[in-house]
Design a protein that fits this description.
single chain, alpha/beta, Malonyl-Coenzyme A Acyl Carrier Protein, domain 2, 6-stranded mixed sheet, 3-stranded mixed sheet, globular
């Protein structure tokens, strides 16, 4: 028998592959540069951007929006400011296409989702990724929502609202136990910000083009629902957990009405993350250009063993060229990298073309 120091190390114990969950964020954390950087650095992202925007640009052209794909992959890609200065719906189409491109790139490396989490505007891309809408109709929904909203005026949180005497400010999104988004008229939001400062609560203004998640948008929601009702919805191949719906859409749920509900109703993320993050090993991947939703998931699921969350476009160590590393046993949710192991990932299903 060879000496102990000459014996091969015992094989690592087999670990089941993690369930992949794709996170689709809203508009509050969208930037163009991470997508451009990733497309230049990684061929799988570049191909996904080219393929997705070829279909997106065709549909968005019906609404007077110039083609974005060639610009994003060109030598002088547009800035967020330039997108905002374009025709109504241009930034929203860019976000929708970016989310779908990231989703497609992840599927291409074997990281297709078993479940999907959708927040606010991200519901459009999430339902498209799940096969409920095709890429063209998902784009049309984004354009019609933008046109509808372009006619709108642009727990502790509720206590601040009451203390500031701002009756038209409402809770829009509960992201985690320490982060809540409010919605309302600008001058009343300023009152809440002053009140927050007096109470030692940090407040940051999100520069969004439209009001959202506010009760005053009930009529706009009905208008939007009517505008998208003609676009057919099919049974999805992947469950979509909606932060507004409060859980996964079922086969009998009206997704057109669910999308419209995102206008007047709040998004409550923690419970939906807990649903989608259980049971067993889970890796949550953000299909957006930022990392705010990833951080929310890390905080909400911090005490869940075997759960991790990553933002592929802001994580410099994300293994686009070594996807087998994604199948390694996930680290706790507060970590941003996965622990060692060698389990394979799921084969992609992808969105409808």
């Amino acid at each position: 028998m060879p000496p102990a120091h000459d014996r091969p190390a015992p094989p690592a114990p087999w670990e089941p592959p993690p369930d992949i969950v794709h996170l689709f964020p809203g508009q509050g954390d969208f930037a163009v540069s991470p997508l451009v950087t990733a497309a230049r650095a990684h061929s799988v992202v570049r191909v996904a951007v080219r393929e997705v925007f070829a279909r997106v640009d065709e549909a968005s052209g019906e609404y007077g929006i110039p083609a974005l794909g060639p610009a994003l992959l060109g030598d002088t890609p547009p800035s967020g400011r330039k997108l905002a200065a374009g025709p109504v719906g241009t930034p929203q189409v860019a976000l929708f296409g970016a989310s779908m491109a990231i989703h497609r790139a992840l599927c291409a490396i074997g990281a297709a989702p078993r479940r999907i989490v959708a927040v606010s505007f991200g519901e459009i891309a999430a339902l498209t990724a799940a096969g409920v809408f095709d890429l063209a109709d998902g784009t049309r929904i984004a354009c019609r929502l933008s046109r509808c909203l372009s006619r709108c005026p642009g727990g502790e949180a509720e206590k601040l609202i009451d203390a500031s005497a701002s009756p038209r400010v409402a809770v829009a999104c509960v992201n985690d136990s320490d982060e809540t988004v409010l919605s309302g008229p600008t001058h009343e939001l300023s009152q809440v910000e002053r009140c927050a400062e007096e109470h030692g609560v940090a407040a940051v203004r999100l520069r969004l083009p439209f009001t959202s998640h506010h009760p005053s948008l009930t009529a706009r929601a009905a208008e939007f629902e009517a505008a998208i009702r003609t676009l057919p919805a099919r049974p999805g191949h992947t469950p979509v957990h909606s932060a507004v719906h409060g859980g996964p859409y079922g086969r009998d749920d009206d997704v057109h009405r669910g999308l419209a509900a995102c206008l007047p109703c709040p998004a409550r993320l923690p419970d939906v993350l807990r649903q989608a993050g259980a049971p067993g090993p889970t890796l949550l991947l953000e299909c957006g250009t930022g990392h705010a939703l990833t951080h929310n998931a890390q905080r909400v699921l911090a005490h869940r063993n075997g759960v991790s969350a990553r933002s592929p476009l802001t994580d410099p160590d994300f293994p686009w060229e070594r996807p087998h590393r994604l199948g390694q046993g996930p680290a706790p949710a507060e970590a941003t990298a996965a622990a060692p192991g060698t389990a394979p990932l799921r084969e992609p299903q992808g969105e409808s073309a």
